[in-house]
Every structure is written in C-alpha cells, then in structure tokens.
Write a structure and sequence with these properties.
By secondary structure, the chain is an alpha+beta fold. Helices cover 23% and strands 51% of the residues. A six-stranded mixed beta sheet has the order 2-1-6-5-4-3, with helices on one face. The N and C termini lie far apart (49 Å).
Length: 136
C-alpha cells in the first residue's frame, strides 16, 4: 500500500465526520458512490443522497457535534480498501448547558473503491460500542 493511498483513506474518514460537525451535509454526497449503503442498528440505507439525508436528520437538531477519529487501520487490495476507525462523538443539545452532552463511541468500517483517482465509500457500517448520556 502506498503512503498516498493510506493518507487519502484516513482523510476520507476525517472528511466524513467533519461534514457532520460543520453541518456541510451536501458535501457528504461526493464521499459516497451513488449506490452506497449505510448499515447501522437502525437498518440499511441505500443511496448516497438517502445516506446524507439520514445523517442530516440525525445531527441537525444539535447545537454542535464533535467527532474524534482514532485507531484507524487501512487494508488496500487493488482498487478497493477497507478502513476501520474508532469514532467518539460528542453531541451538544444546548450549547449553554454542557452537562446535557451525549457521548457515543462507535466503530466505523468503510468499504471503499478507487475510481478515477478518488477513493469513495461503497458501504459504511456503524457499530455502536458505548454511550454516555446525562444523568437526571
């Protein structure tokens, strides 16, 4: 695997979470192939535009979000790759009340394809690992 491929694939996960945190949801579509799938405990969602709409619906209600990506591994085989990353998300319902933050730990697995010099997501699997919600 070339260092450039690894860099591009790690950057793909980072760009995905940044789109959510910056609420630039329309930019997310370019990260997926049009027929991509998202697999989560809520089921399977098909199509890049539907995935983006799902992400927007689930995150736009928060005053802020922050996704921290770590522990990323990359396995490249030809023009496809699998990227696995641990993601810690902090969801802030009301900015002025930090005690209401929700914290989530998940594992993202991205199956990707290298097409026309760009890595794009063909299938994203989100596996929740833990959750911490405000007490009250």
């Amino acid at each position: 695997m070339s260092a450039a491929y690894r860099h591009d694939l790690v950057e793909l996960v980072t760009r995905l979470t940044r789109c959510i945190d910056l609420k630039t949801f329309p930019e997310m579509s370019a990260l997926y192939l049009p027929d991509a799938e998202l697999v989560s405990p809520m089921g399977v969602i098909e199509g890049a535009n539907t995935i983006v709409e799902f992400a927007q619906r689930n995150h736009e209600q928060y005053a802020a979000t922050q996704h921290l990506v770590c522990g990323t591994t990359v396995e490249v085989e030809g023009e496809s790759a699998v990227v696995v990353a641990d993601v810690v998300a902090v969801l802030v319902p009301v900015a002025e009340e930090p005690g209401t933050n929700i914290q989530l730990g998940s594992r993202y697995e991205l199956a990707t394809a290298h097409i026309d010099g760009v890595w794009r997501i063909t299938r994203q699997t989100i596996t929740p690992l833990w959750q911490r919600t405000p007490m009250g």
